[in-house]
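[Automated response] Your request has been received and processed.

Submitted sequence:
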Amino acid sequence: MSRKAQVVQSRVVKVDSGESWNFFIAQAKNQGCPVVVHFRADWCRPSTAMNPFFEQLALTYQHILFLSIDVDEVKGVASKMEIKAMPSFILMRDGTLVDKLVGANPDEIKKRIDGFAHSTPSYTITRHEALSCENLNNI
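Generated structure:
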């Protein structure tokens, strides 16, 4: 009997330029989709250790757009968002920073995202709107 590996498509979108950052933030704002961003660096062990956890959060909160940014690749965005340490996580609504957390603290990140998800007006979104946020993850 052969075992088949289950492949799960990532819901975390990698931002690779200032242009793609602007695009995703503008689209999320236009569609009323909240955003959580993981600012990371490949050389930072706590950052890389948080990647699987961040992926799991993206699967749990499917009405939120999850973005990942390597601060060494997209320095302009990291600077604009005043990222000074990795990992850093920001929560955005309507293109505006709502909360920021610095450090690899899974319990606190989950707590803040859970509160953010339940305080976001789009938490009670219609199926059509949910599809719009989900579609942002597939671009």
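Summary generated for your ticket: The radius of gyration is 15 Å. Strands lie at 12-15, 35-40, 65-70, 88-93, 96-102.
If you did not submit this request, please reply to this message.
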